[in-house]
## 1
Amino acid sequence: MQSWSKHQTINVDFQLQTTLNEILSIKDSLMSIESNSIRVSIIDIRPAENFDNDGVTRSYNFVLIGDETGTTFLVVLDLAPEVLKTEYTYDITKIRRKNFNETYILSTTIDTHISLSKSTINPNIDDISKIMNIDLVDVKTIITAVMEFEQQ
């Protein structure tokens, strides 16, 4: 079991007990304002980015996911190495859409569960070039100039 934070855990042996009707597609999840469950294939896992949260070093990964309706990024907090593997299919519960740099992507929540799926997903990668162009830089640099005027 992997600990994400004191409230989040991942159990790769957990089996999602839900009907197929309760699993939304990526396309529908990106339009929903509610938390959702999805079944997705992992296409790529970006390197972790560290950040400080009240003196505690945390990390997040951008995970490129896909299903039959398209692709998007999933932001996963404090992902341990080797928990998710590319080209495997996972059932992920209680994810939410997130507005990130003026684009909707998906994000884990405090209640998210991730489990290896018994199904296989062949992702539709027709929109992958658009998704790959999303600006994933969370910290922006603001440059200001201070001009001094001489008083005469």
Note: The mean pLDDT is 83.
## 2
Amino acid sequence: MPRRVRDSLRQALTQMARRPAVLCGAVVLSCTLVLAIRLSCSRAKAVVAPAPPPSRFFSADAPVADLFLGQLAQAERLRAAAEVSLVCYYAPWCGRSVSARAELERVARRLAGQVQFVAVNCWWNQGRCRKQHNFYQYPVIHLYYQRFGPIEYRGPLTAAYLEQFTRRVMAPLEYLPSRDRLQDFFSYHEPGVVGYFEFNSSPQPPGYMVFLASALQALKRDFQGGVRFAVITNRQVAEAIPLQDFGAVYMRRHSNTSLIFPRHKLNFTSENVCQWAFEHREGLLRWLRPHGGKSRLLDAELQRGAALLVFLPFDPLAGAQPLVREVADVATRYHSCERSQQAESGEQTGNVNEQWLWSRRTPLFEQLCCNTVVLPQSHSISRTHNVCELCINQSAGVEPSEVQAPRCSFHEMEAAMDSFYLKERTFVHLVSRNTECSNIQSTYSPFSYYTACCKTLNEGRADLDNLSEPPSLPSSSFTSSTQLQDEPRTLQNMFAHAESSSSAVNHHFLNGGITGLKCRTNKTLGFYMLDSHLHWKFAVRLGAPENGTTKVFTTIVNVLDEVHYVLDHSEFLKDALENFIRNYSILYSPLKRYLVGESVPRSSNSLINEVTTQSFNSQVMDPEKDVLLFYYTQWCGFCTVLNHVIIQLARFFQGNQKIAVCRINAAKNDLPWEYMVDRFPALLFFPRDRKHASVKFPDLPFTLPNLVRFVLRH
């Protein structure tokens, strides 16, 4: 092996001696390469320039201590010296931090002297804040009440909402000096927690600081302030609840029994009081504030069941919120099952009219709504009929003085008659000259039961004259216009004409009609409110006008059934909302599914007509044209691939005025269920004069010959 190496080196030296120019070129090239590598490596540190030192982020004239070098220790000193402080951790490059800067400065100018505002640059890599904190997003806003904190603010980054939350931290407890203030405090839909303390002792009454910390714990747990805390110092005011012992904590609930904190079971600590309040609070009405358009908050709530969404223009700093009060009042009465049960059991309710009503009710015929049904003849040769008076028991809470001539709506009577005809054989074979009644328990619905009173009649006029009335109602100021009367009537006018009755639900559920409806129907609703100033884009997607002036929109969304209904706000909000909820709660609801669609495009001479929800009937259901409808969506990749095939098909039939090729964006235009498809792309052919016989394109390749044969075949 060494011999071979020596021979190779000897040959190389011989060749280099014969060609010295090649040797010199190789040496120069090697030196140049080594020098270039050495220079590039020596300049590597100078390629990356150091980041410039940070500068002031907030305005110099704003009352905000801007610690742009990330001085966390100085921020702690400023916070400890103030009673209430707000610390904002920001990143200079963050767009949300930039947009929140002006809002925070506006709040700082309004609350200057009351709150210490501190801003810390938590992005500079040499600052102490960046080394100690690793936030998921920016900005992060923390509030401190003396030594208690941090209380993170997670609400909208607007001046109004931020100021409202800051003021709640500044005054976590509300003082109630009189019974009027106490009544006003309990009138809100949020649950209220009241503590009774005597301030004669020094420096603070026993348990007061624990109660104050409980209110701060509640704000830390729920930034929306779902539970409100207040303090009573007057014995006369406390006796109205009633509270007798100093240090007692009382929680007011609207639809359930109010509670007193059980000191004999739980230690009186801020954590226990806060946990007790949140465990026993009522979820009557909830504010939803989704963070951005991709938030899953709204979807998570809609997955729980049918939801009533009310979009209202909300001002957090306004003292009176009349629209919010109206919605809250409806939600409170809707969930007040205990009041409805007390009324049905005849307990005293405090209202003279209600007491009179419940004391005179009968268990069988209470607030009846009746229609007459003539059953078919039991035998073909018989000249007798069984005539039945079908009466629906209305929901509790209707005062007789408020109802004049109640009538059955078509939807309510249809629901009762469906159950009645299931038991028709029981009444068809009845032969009785006397009135026979049967009280039939209905299914779980807003109507607890209905009653059928039947009698056998001949077709003679005399029997009609002697037709008995059903058991009479208690004496009251109204009579049912559909009850049997003493005057003679013919069989023709004894048939039920429920379709000619009054509007869907105007005759019942009046006044207390919505009270306790949650417990009398299996179509339970969740109540939610959204600020239309922040979340109007959700309302637009559900059918609200994009440039609406009122910014008030109400809808019921049922994700499970894939339907939603929209309220017409031509009426007063409270009345319209009650009727809307009652119509939805009826077993056979008269509400129509709302179809969201794009605006009708301007007429054009294009080969393919664009169909929307509004133009579907006029274009697709035209009885004089054969229509081929192409279903697509903007996110469907296969739909885009087929565009050229659909265009070729439209050109093929361009000369035939009886054939139209149309397309519809199914993601933006809702259609009735019978015209929807389960996948995209899809083709449906609607032949002229036979629209009911529409045909779906079979599972074949989407080619021009297949499409032409499909159209010509049908």
Note: The chain has six domains: 2-47, 65-167, 172-283, 297-333+516-585, 352-504, 609-713.
## 3
Amino acid sequence: MQPPDELMVESYLPAMRILVARRLRSMGLSQSRISSLLGVTQASVSNYLSSKGEKPYATLERFSVSRKEADENVGRISEGVLAGPVQGVEALTSIWTGLLGAGSVCGPHRADHPGLADCEVCIELYGAVEKKRSLGVAEVSAAVRILESSATFPLVVPQVSANLASLAFDSDSPDDVVAVPGRIVRVKGRAMSVLPPAAGASSHLSKFLLTARRRRPEFRACINLLYDNEMKSALSTTRVQSIEVSSRSVRGEGDPATAALERRLKAPATDFWAVVDRGGEGIEPSTYLFGRSAREVATLAVRVSDAYEDLFRRGADAHASKKAK
């Protein structure tokens, strides 16, 4: 038996490790830290960084991965390993499964093993899932455009940046949740996505969404915003029902916000379309909005940001008027 996993271990993974090591190094991480994150020896990292040229990209081209796609995937995996070992594996596995489902591994696999010329196992196993993920990517892309075209949305983007996560089909796996790698940031007063949406791109937000779905299975999308007094008033003005959690109460957890939500959902049932996290040590207070689709969440976020801008402007006008007197 010659499964395609051999190609992953012998060809794809080494190329990705080199590129991820380069990316992490460009971010200022030491070789020791990179070796810890990638789970390899420091000597291996040294070899990765000393290897110049385009060989890793040439290797990935065998799997129909363009240089642009490779760099995007490197960004996803780098973000994953920085978040934790499980998140790194999630990102890598999601990308590799996508290649299997798309048939991108078939060419090199058949070239190495001519006896598998008629094999389409991976396409049959993973192709349907990949098609659904592609539809999810398209929906999140459209939702992101709604946010990017809003003049008020940048006002509610938190310091840690925003992200929008959406589940295109029923699943309990973070790998099937589509989000924006690198998140949605403020650039010259406008909201802008760092990279195109992709499945498995946000470990935290995907887990938060999946946790909320245990109580509200109709939820398929989620977005994180800032939280302050104006946001509290904006939620009230737009009549968005919310519940509160506190990351401070679950210190030591790997994902305090998700752990706090799990604890809160054990209480008697309460309808909600938003979750307010009061934050904790080193954790910024946040608002999470939910909806039945990525577009619905984006539209709700803009409605809330419009109310936020109005309240903020009124407060500024009142302060200026009081100061003038």
Note: The longest strand covers residues 221-226.
